[in-house]
Amino acid sequence: MSALARYVAWPPREERPALLPFPLPQVAGPAWAAWRRHRAAYRTVIALALVCGLWALWEHHQLLAGVHHYADACRKVRQSCDPSGDQSGGAHQPAPPRVPVVVHTLFDMAPSVLRFLPLVVGALLGGPLFGQELEAGTHRLAWVQSVGRREWVAVKLAVATGVTAFGAVVLTAPVSWWWYASWRGHGRPGLDGYAWRAVTWWNDWDFFAYTGPVGVAHLLLALMIGAVTGLLVRRTLPAVAVSAGLCEAVLFGLGRLRSHLLTPYVLRHGYGQLAPSQPRDAWYLGGGYVRADGSLTTKDPCAGPGVKDIMTCLRQHHVVGQYDSDFRMSQFVPLQLIETAICLSAAAALAAFCLWYVPRVTAR
Predict the structure, then answer these.
(1) Would you list the DSSP string of 105-118?
(2) Which helix (H) or strand (E) holds 1?
(3) Which residue positions in the chain have pLDDT lower than 50?
(4) Which residue ranges run through the membrane (predicted)?
């Protein structure tokens, strides 16, 4: 028996559906057992991902229709929308059109829901992966069969990873489409571009963690955090609680680390002077002060209550100007790739830890 035949079975011709010209492989052996053990959770994840993905595709269509409707309304009351139009109407100036409800749903409410997905995956999918069997003692039955401990861990992790990756792609792809459509719309000229900028503006790249490969990598890392927690704690409910806390801590750390992964653009200007304008789609990171030797500091040297002459204080501290820093859209993809590599490397390390640790688990 080949290694592939141990996990995949091909049904005979007489059992093949008449409408299919070729047989479809079926999961068999340890992979089938791993699927069957958690099939209720896996089917729920797949079903929810498909439903949410279809809903997201419909919402994308609604978003485009809503923005186009806003632009058409602006053409009728141009002076209330176009920045270059006549703004001298005073109290008789028409009010701008109402922002479509779908925009609030996607850009205001969606991030609040998406940020909790890694916690749900780590706690409810990763935590019980090993913790449930170790708590119930059913792992002993698997270990006395032809399946070794490391194979048991590897197969369960592979099946859970496949389900998680499928659900993550189904959810991340529409979110990436929202974000990309909005980014493209912000750069359009005329009222169409104004409509996009007026109704879909966001700050600090709010959808960065939910788009592209990063959205998938976060969920895979959360799954591995939950799996390791369940393997160490060996109790389902404690593993669920600890996994959720660890995933929240990891997400917080990644958010703090993100601004340090690449060198930002720095715009310097004299103290009190108007700062150079940043690109509309830049991620503003913050600002500070420029010293005479060219070094930068975020600490205000003259913030004390006893300072009377700010300019004299700044000269005493050798401050000659201010600066603003930001990330540009040209750095979006490199940031995505770097953070994805960090998450996948950490997930692979946690999976390797499971394979290393499971022989040390007592079969009690």
Answers:
(1) IIIIIHHHHHTTHH
(2) none
(3) 1, 85-93
(4) 40-58, 113-131, 152-180, 207-233, 337-358
